Amino acid sequence: MAKQPETVRFAIMGCADIARKVARAIALAPNATLSAVASRSLQKAQTFAAQNSLPDTVSLYGSYHELLDDPTVDAVYLPLPTSLHVQWAVAAAARRKHVLLEKPAALNTAELDRILEACESNGVQFMDGSMWLHHPRTSHMHQLLSLSHSGSIGNVQFIHSTSTMQTKPGFLESNIRVKAELDGLGALGDLAWYCIGASLWAKGYQLPASVTALPDVTRNAAGVILSITASLHWHQPNQTEATIHCSFLSHTSMDLAISASNGSLHVRDFIIPYREDIASFDFTFGAKFVDLHIGWNVKPEQVNVPNLLPQEALMVQHFATLVAAIRDCGSSPDNKWPEITRKTQLVVDAVNKSLDLGCKPVFL
Q1: Family per UniProt (predicted)?
Q2: Sign of CA dihedral 18, 24, 26, 30
């Protein structure tokens, strides 16, 4: 698809594996162009460019400061280790670069607030890299959750989500996600970010009244969380319970099940769809047992939602649209996205605090 003159010029700061996926997404998004890539050395940036067949028009830098000095860059995508987010996201915002930040956004809410304050004071857009929120399937499910929708499944009463992965050999010894000095949140930041975010999404981003970590947590020798289960509880406007389970030690799963007063939703690949071009979920409305309880009156309906672009490209496209509106039309940044990120981070902090308190409830 041909790029338009008003495309937003992106830079990638750091050459982590996820950066390859986002570089492809920038190439696919109709309103975005990859302008620059930086790593801790020029050689690493050059290797990244060669491995991903980047065009010669992409500037390559051997330091992050050099990238931030590039006046042609509108927005920066940061896939850096979480421990580096506050330093470089604040630096990017100070240079009036819009910030697309990989999740988890920060190690704690205090660090995240420094990032968000820098973005707000410099008038730049912030968004974290929760790609699944931009998939049209997510919007379709949201319509069924809406209380104003005639086919609404009703009041959400129970949410269950999992994010588990079967790791490759050596992951538990060398991956940055299990290194205390790089990504100290471990599975709580890398995987539970999705499940917490999905629970908040299902509740219209209302914060839970309390959060409790379960005592089945597994840590490595450095104290980094490898597996965790937690529960979230809402009192109002109706009582809702959510359970999340996230682990580097289990077979891959990405389940999201939502039970409500009139129906239910179930999606088995909510974080990364099985296919790029179409995604599905199961929807059940008004289910009852037949006479003698020997069956059901309805079967779950599989709803298929086609997708013209991968969800990561839709994320880039949406972010670029916001950036272009600020750059070209004097619009204000959309506060929806930093608010979503901050609420997710608050719950991450609450799970951590509950662990520190011996798995006692933490009230928000």
Answers
A1: Belongs to the Gfo/Idh/MocA family.
A2: negative
